[in-house]
Amino acid sequence: MTILPFLAVTFGAAAASLLTRRSERLSATIGILGLAGAVVAAAAISADEMLAIGGGELVGSAYLRLFVWLGSLVALLLALLGLLSGSHRHVPGVLLAGIGAAGLALALPDARIAILAATAGGLVGILVTIPLPALASGVVVAARELRALAVAGALAILAAAWIGRPLAELAGEPAVFGLAYLGFAVAVAIRFGAIPFHFWAARLADAAPEVSLPMLMAWGPAAFAVVALAWADQSVAPLLLPLTVERSLVVAVGAVSAVLGAVAAWIQDDLEHVVGYTIIADAGIAILGLAALDPAAWEPARTWVIVFVVARSAFAAWAVAVRLAFGSRRIDELRGWALRAPLLALGLVMIVVASFGVPGLAVWEARTGLIDLTLDGPFAIVVTLGALGPLAVYARLAAIGVGRPSETVARAASQRPTWAAPLPSRPALGRTIAGRGVERAANAVGGGLDLLRTVPAALGVNRALIASLLVLALAGISLALSAGGFGVTAAAGAVPGQVPTPIESEPPGSESEPPATTTPDGSAPASGSPAGSGPAESTRPEPSFQSVPSP
Fold it and tell me: Which site from 84, 206, 348, 374 is most exposed, i.e. has the minimal number of CB atoms within 10 Å?
């Protein structure tokens, strides 16, 4: 099956959910059902299946299928958690639009159109930064986010279009390709909110609902980054240009983000800001993948992108569940949280392992592989230690969790399962066997109705427990993924095959050979490939400045 049913479900349900925002219950119901349908539709996507539509193409891949399936599943769990925590009811619609736009971006062969799709998904996310009624602080944050999205999208489109057009006499100037590559890399850094472009992202946690942060700061930018990785691998890397200055600048942004993002997360006292800065720190490693310009970086870069966004989604869910359980997101007020919420403590341990891993796990090998490909000597050691810096943040949370419970934690409700109200007793009073049988049957029906009436109240009093279970589900998914589950390394390393072009039938007995297509300088052009999928061939052509492959 092509990606078209997935896009129909996500965009259709997103539109319906957002258009019915005035009815919070209806909007949330449509959004949740749409996310559940998106999970099913994403699992049915076929790898390397092309769909011609409107003069363009939508190309499937194993990586695309895994990305949108995990994204839909994570979004569904986050949306359920958002309903428990009282987040905006139109969050499910925004999550649907975001993951749908990400899937469309990864399926489009043309990088320029893919950038538009990824940027459009980010624009829909602005809806959750402006609550109703609108506040001045929310409008300011939304304006900054809009500016960042516009600048990043414009830079990326200009870079892709610049190399894609006939360059004539500029084709012999390596600086042309260096500027385009640097522009696209800066666009990715802006989308992730990497340091020093982090000011808009740092304020996002104050305005957007907590459950929407993974989509706004991780999943949407991750799709943008995957498009950039494929574009660079297809349009810049085959030219074998040194690009020393440009690559050094990209490496610097990635390394600084990885190190200073961990430091910023350590000094924060608000859980949502801690989540935001850990996303920025992990995004720095993803940017190193863009700086490598090496075929060896193809698999670890794409593996790291999908593993880190799932792990950070689980961490964001953990922060939401902690606030729901104790009514605070200030770290200093959460002393003793682990003693009162052992399920959340277990979830945090699983998230830590999923985020960092151990030698031999996919997440560990991807991170060390990208650092080794872009840095060496003392710089590699510093960035490696910086990438492991968030461990200090988790250690701080653990140390506070086993301390003497604070007043905030002590007065929080217990997370033991409870029922909202006792069910009424219905004894059988009949004197005959037949009478008691009929009475028991009627009591069974009445007892079932009593049970159904108390379910909403039971969900309300067990919100913290249900949230902890949702966190455990997300932590388990991220842990399995970081260990190489779901076929992530195979999907990330696969190079999509080419869709064969129909050939007209030849008369019987005739022999023909496919015509050789060459560029003006006599060299074979590089084949195109999906912007979100990767290069069409694993070999690199010799550098040629007379003819440039189009994206």
Answer: 206
The CA angle 450-455-456, to the nearest 5 degrees, is 125
Confidence of residue 198 (pLDDT cuts 50, 70, 90): confident
Q: Residue 538 is which amino acid?
A: S
CA-based torsion, 106, 282, 353, 333: positive or negative: negative
Distance CA 73, CA 214 (A): 13
CA distance 367 to 377: 16
State residue 538's pLDDT score.
Answer: 38
Residue pLDDT, tens place only, 221-260 = 999 999 999 998 888 888 777 888 999 999 999 999 999 9
User: What's the half-sphere exposure (Cβ side, CA atoms, 13 Å) at 269?
Assistant: 4
At residue 76, the pLDDT reads 96
**Three-state secondary-structure class, residue 59:** strand
- The mean of the pLDDT values for the chain is 82
Provide the whole-model pTM: 0.84
Helix or strand run (H / E) with residue 9: helix 4-19
SS3 letters across 395-421: HHHHHHHCCCCCHHHHCCCCCCCCCCC
For the segment 443-465, what is each residue's pLDDT rounded down to a tens digit? 677 666 666 666 666 666 778 88
**Under 8 Å CB-to-CB from 177, ≥6 apart: which residues?**
163, 236, 239, 241, 243, 548
Going from the C-alpha of 526 to that of each of 21, 98, 173, the distances in angstroms are 48, 32, 19
**Residue 425: per-residue pLDDT:** 67
pLDDT at site 516: 41
End-to-end Cα separation, the chain, in angstroms: 26
Which DSSP state fits 130? Answer: S
CA distance 434 to 322: 54
Select from 241, 227, 205 the least CA-distant residue to 120: 227
CA–CA separation, 261 and 307 (whole Å): 18
Residue-wise pLDDT for 328-381, tens only, equals 889 989 999 998 999 999 999 999 999 999 999 999 999 999 999 998 888 899
CA distance 374 to 292: 6
What is the identity of the amino acid at 45? I
Closest by CA to 366, choosing from 266, 99, 318, 374, is 374
Candidates 78, 18, 129; CA nearest to 478 is: 78
Q: Is 190 exposed, middle or buried (0-12, 13-18, 19+ CB in 10 A)?
A: buried
| HSE-up of residue 187 (Cα within 13 Å, Cβ side) | 32
